[in-house]
Design brief:
589 residues, eight-stranded mixed beta sheet, DHBP synthase, single chain, Nucleotidyltransferase, domain 5, 3 domains, alpha/beta, five-stranded mixed beta sheet
Length: 589
């Protein structure tokens, strides 16, 4: 069975191709360089088909990740509910939908040169449930999907059966959405909804939940496992800001995003009172979200009686809520797919048209050839490149070690000298996190390097923390306690001795670890182990290879361009090491 799943139209357009027991997956933003690209993922589809050696005509099924007509009905009904004040919004929504969004199936058929009858649809939360359960290692599990909104459903509890069937047991419909609740406060705090939720989560660690009772007036959570958005606080059909006068009377005016927040993940917690109010509000919103997630998880446990949980939907990207679910929730094992949001729902859509289970790990991107980018090097004027640590005139040293062990040893040596290293290997990771394929690496003991990367490489807000990669063999030395969750940077975990790896630890002593297994990523695992043996530090700091507002790099040309314009000292491109301004006496390329 060869099935193509596709998500597009809103954000994070993605293609996922399942053929037999193989999976190839690619996000359109990596090719278009438009972050959260919503457009039909033509290049991603082509990349997946090319990696599988297939043409579109050989596909047995194509599945779109939601039902456009049902979603259109929800948009019209919810907008009409405020008529006549919503007349302008109704006209705009109708125009947008009739003009393009309603015809997603037809757009796919035309792009693939297939009859429309060959393209199917799956309900949005059906796709999320499939991505969580059918890609998991569990034969049976409770399934919890926590999202913004699909057609009507925003949250669902289901049971995954041994035959692959997903049985929905309870659901919560629009406007009662945990995702929209968190997105609304993300916008109020001065961040961009559907992108800046990670900033809300990071900011929360600097505050105290002093406004939790006020936030609970907006999102009402029952200990029995129910929740609802209260009437009158948010207008989710609004074209711009969703805050009503009642909301503003309670919380004041939104934060001006042009005013930077004076918090530092690498410093201390002190900040002026007028800034702490934003951190306190973020902490309150985070707390109330966690309460809702825990209540829903306990209800899922009661309704299924199972010990394993599969979690998906955009809310499942909240690693702090996930950590609390691991600590206090009723499940002994939890699986969260590498991309639990709408991008990963392309895999779920593919699985609804597939007949057997397929393992879903982050390492399913189409592989790329680094040769053409390396062949370009002699033709580039490296004197125009951005310098390394010392800011000297750039010269370029190119080294191709004969063996992987030598490559690893050379890179460990450079890391030990305080260099910032770009690490590019194989295909792109699935999801929003770099896990040793498109990473920037450096010594986690060096806070000065973290500050330099934030200002000179990534243009990163100082209140946002970095994360650590640790080999599975060394995880017990780095992290406190055991987690029932796989280590793909999906859960915030306490660090045993934060001072040893301070650059990769948040203000509360936690990190969002990647626990790397050798069978998943052998070369990266070997690098991590070699680094521990040489340095004595139990982990490497790992952040994604991209600048602020840009997607993670896809191919070697993008990696080379990023190396040229940023203050990376070194780029490992496959089996080749490129180094700016080498030591005196070293050969130059």
């Amino acid at each position: 069975m060869r099935t193509l799943g596709v998500s597009f139209g809103y954000h994070d357009a993605t293609a996922a191709l399942v053929a037999g027991d193989r999976l190839w997956m690619a996000s359109e933003e990596r090719y278009s360089r438009l972050k959260h690209d919503p457009n039909l993922p033509r290049r991603s589809i082509a990349a997946c088909l090319g990696a599988a050696g297939m043409t579109a005509g050989e596909l047995d099924a194509v599945v779109y990740y939601e039902e456009p007509h049902a979603k259109f009905a929800r948009v019209l009904v919810s907008t009409l509910a405020a008529f006549p004040w919503s007349a302008g919004r109704f006209a705009k929504s109708a125009r947008d939908w009739v003009g393009e969004r309603l015809w997603s199936v037809e757009q796919l058929a035309i792009a693939l040169d297939l009859p429309a009858s060959r393209v199917q649809t799956a309900a949005h939360h059906q796709s999320h449930a499939a991505q969580a359960f059918l890609g998991s290692p569990f034969s049976e599990a409770a399934i919890l999907t926590l999202d913004a909104v699909g057609e009507w459903t925003c949250t669902s509890i289901a049971r995954g059966h041994a035959d692959g069937r997903v049985e929905v047991l309870a659901s919560w419909d629009y406007p009662h959405s945990l995702g929209l609740f968190y997105a609304a406060f993300t916008g109020f705090l001065g961040f961009r909804p559907n992108d800046g939720e990670c900033s809300t989560m990071a900011l929360a660690r600097f505050g105290q939940p002093t406004r939790a009772d006020d936030v609970r007036r907006v999102l009402q959570v029952s200990p029995a496992g129910d929740y609802a958005l209260a009437d009158g606080f948010l207008d989710l059909t609004a074209e711009t800001v969703p805050y009503t006068r009642r909301f503003l009377d309670l919380f004041g005016e939104p934060r001006d995003p042009r005013r930077p927040l004076p918090f530092d993940a690498l410093g201390d917690e002190t900040a002026p009172p007028d800034a702490r109010r934003w951190a306190d509000l973020a902490a309150s919103v985070q707390l109330v979200l966690e309460e809702a997630v825990l209540a829903l998880a306990r209800r899922a446990k009661r309704e299924t009686g199972l010990d394993r949980l599969c979690l998906a939907g955009g809310v499942a990207l909240n690693c702090v809520a996930n950590a609390r679910l691991c600590r206090e929730g009723p499940f002994t094992e939890i699986y969260i797919p590498p991309d639990p949001g709408d991008g990963g729902a392309a895999f779920g859509a593919a699985m609804t048209g597939h007949k057997s289970r397929v393992a879903y790990t982050p390492f399913c991107g189409p592989t790329v050839d680094t040769g053409p980018a390396l062949d370009l090097l002699p033709h580039l004027d490296v004197h125009e490149w951005t310098g390394g640590t010392r800011g000297d005139e750039v010269r370029l040293h190119v080294e191709r070690p004969a063996h992987p062990e030598t490559l690893v040893a050379r890179v460990v040596e450079r890391l030990g000298q305080g260099e910032v290293v770009g690490w590019f290997q194989g295909g792109m990771e699935s999801g929003p996190r770099a896990l040793g394929q498109r990473s920037i690496l450096f010594d986690p003991r060096r806070v000065d390097l973290a500050r330099r990367v934030s200002t000179e490489v990534k243009a990163r807000a100082p209140f946002r923390p970095y994360a650590l990669s640790v080999a599975e063999d060394d995880a017990a030395e780095l992290l406190e306690g055991a987690s029932p969750l796989r280590g793909w940077m999906q859960v915030a975990a306490p660090v045993r001795d934060p001072a040893r790896v301070r650059a990769g630890v948040h203000i509360d002593g936690t990190t969002r670890p990647q626990v790397c297994r050798r069978d998943e990523n052998p070369l990266y695992h070997d690098l991590l182990r070699a680094w521990v043996a040489e340095s004595g530090a139990p982990a490497l700091l790992n952040t994604s290879m991209n600048g602020r507002g840009h997607p993670i790099v896809d191919g070697p040309f993008e990696a080379l361009a990023f190396f040229a314009r940023s203050r990376l000292d070194c780029l490992v491109l496959g089996d080749t090491i490129l180094h700016k301004t080498p030591p005196t006496g070293a050969p130059h390329g």
